[in-house]
Structure formats: structure tokens, C-alpha cells
Automatic annotation (TrEMBL):
Gene3D superfamilies: Luciferase-like domain (3.20.20.30). GO terms for molecular function: monooxygenase activity; oxidoreductase activity, acting on paired donors, with incorporation or reduction of molecular oxygen. Pfam families: Bac_luciferase. This is Luciferase-like domain-containing protein. Belongs to the NtaA/SnaA/DszA monooxygenase family. It comes from the Eukaryota. It comes from Trichoderma semiorbis. Coiled coil: none annotated. Residues 48-268 form the Luciferase-like domain.
């Protein structure tokens, strides 16, 4: 017979092969015994009550890394859920371990990065209760120690309990939190991207110069909410600006995520 003619089924199969997309696997965790299923820590095979042990996290990170997961996304909250059965009542959350207690997620990253090769670590950090200069330094440090495998889930916080425990009588109004957040990000971009020249760090042992004298610039930020002269206190990390997640679902949150987020966290 002459040249073969592809069948309809064969053409369809080729089309399917060409349209295949890579699935991105992301583990969703929290530094607490009870994340999304309060009380599930009681299950005999569950180990989340070991969340205070570093080995729990390093073993989990290695398991995910070997399984081909792309990332571990670590949620966080800065105050307890305390409105059920009366205001400022944390008792209902206690027995179930319902996101109480919660440890800081950022301290987990260096240890997990040290025992993995490819896994990315997305950490949640609120910009409402921490100054931009300090958070820029913390995230740059994580990016250095993870060799460029850190992401930041940007949140503005939403619990009254968090506001009270950070010195406020009530939360900053919702849309104002996002107005503050826009300027906050402006400060961070200036610190991360505009403070150190690419060739600033010379590490010249012979002449005794670690950073070129003209390699670092102040950012001179003066805005409505922040005044930060700079310069950034960390030399450029592998990413400079970490990969950015955003999780707001309000109109203001969507606008913020559309401007700053590289991945948007949504409920399915």
C-alpha cells in the first residue's frame, strides 16, 4: 500500500498528546496540630501532634520532594478563632486544636530546604503587623538559605483577635489594609530590586572589598504610611523578590492580587 493516512482516532490521540499539561502538586499544611480538619489529630495514623518537632517537618519535606511535589504551602494566622459562644472565647478551639496553638512557619524553611533538592516553600506572612524593612530582611534571609526556593503568600490578616493582640482596639478597615499593602509592596520592591546593584557584591579578598563602595543605594521612600530611607540590609538573594502568592477574594484583594500576585490562592 502507499503512504499511510492517519486515522481519526490517531489524529485525536496526537492532539491529546500535544495538549497535555503538567500537573502542579502543592501540599497545603500549617504549623499547628489542627489545620483544616479540627480533631483529626486523634486519628491513629495522624502525626500532626508532632508539629513541634523539627523531624516531623524534615521528614514531610523529604517525602514530598521524592514524590515530585512542586511546593509546600504553609498557611498561618496571627490570632485565635474566638467568636464562637461569646466574644474573646478561645475555649471551643482548644479541645479540637482548631488552628490553636500555631507556631511561626518561617523558621521551618531552612531546615526543610537543607534536606530537599527541588521542593519550593510558600510561607504565609502578614504585612499588617510587621514593618516592611524587617519583613524584607526575613524573606531575603529565607531566599538565601533555601537557595531561591522560597515563596511568600501575602496576607493582610482578618481576625479581630490578631488586631487586639498587636496593640489595636479593632482591625484597620478592610480597604485601608489593602491601600497600606500596596505601599508596603512598593517599599519591598525598592529594597529588594533597587538597593543593591547587580555587581555590588565583589568579595575581593586581595583588596579587602566585600561590597563596592558605589554598589548600594538608599531607597529614600516617603509615602502616606511608610518612611524608609534604606538601604536593604541583605545582599541580593537568588530571586531578590520571592515568588508571590496572594489569597484575597474581595474586590480590593482581587485588585491587589492582579497587580502583585504571581499565583492566586482560591477556594475550589
Amino acid at each position: 500500500m502507499g503512504d499511510s493516512v492517519p486515522t481519526t482516532a490517531g489524529a485525536a490521540a496526537d492532539g491529546q498528546a500535544q495538549s497535555k499539561k503538567q500537573m502542579i502538586l502543592n501540599a497545603f499544611v500549617m504549623n499547628t496540630p489542627g489545620h483544616l480538619a479540627p480533631g483529626f489529630w486523634r486519628h491513629p495514623r495522624n502525626k500532626t501532634d508532632q508539629y513541634t518537632k523539627l523531624s516531623f517537618w524534615t521528614e514531610l519535606a523529604q517525602l514530598l520532594d521524592k514524590a515530585g511535589f512542586h511546593a509546600m504551602f504553609i498557611a498561618d494566622t496571627l490570632g485565635p478563632y474566638d467568636v464562637y459562644k461569646g466574644p474573646s472565647n478561645v475555649v471551643p478551639a482548644l479541645a479540637a486544636g482548631a488552628q490553636f496553638p500555631v507556631n511561626d512557619p518561617l523558621y521551618l524553611v531552612p531546615a526543610m530546604a537543607a534536606v530537599t533538592k527541588n521542593l519550593i516553600f510558600g510561607v504565609t506572612a502578614s504585612l499588617t503587623y510587621e514593618k516592611p524593612y524587617a519583613l524584607a530582611r526575613r524573606l531575603s534571609t529565607l531566599d538565601h538559605l533555601s537557595e531561591g526556593r522560597v515563596a511568600w503568600n501575602i496576607v493582610t490578616s482578618y481576625l479581630d483577635s490578631a488586631a487586639r493582640n498587636h496593640g489595636l482596639k479593632e482591625q484597620i478597615p478592610h480597604d485601608e489594609r489593602y491601600a497600606i499593602a500596596h505601599e508596603y509592596m512598593e517599599v519591598l520592591y525598592k529594597l529588594w530590586e533597587g538597593s543593591f546593584r547587580d555587581d555590588a557584591v565583589v568579595r575581593d579578598r586581595e583588596h579587602g572589598h566585600y561590597i563596592a563602595s558605589d554598589g548600594v543605594l538608599q531607597i529614600h521612600h516617603k509615602g502616606k504610611y511608610f518612611e524608609v530611607p534604606g538601604p536593604h540590609f541583605c545582599e541580593p538573594s537568588p530571586q531578590r523578590t520571592p515568588f508571590l502568592f496572594q489569597a484575597g477574594v474581595s474586590e480590593a484583594g482581587n485588585g491587589f492580587g492582579g497587580k502583585h500576585g504571581e499565583a492566586i490562592f482560591v477556594g475550589g
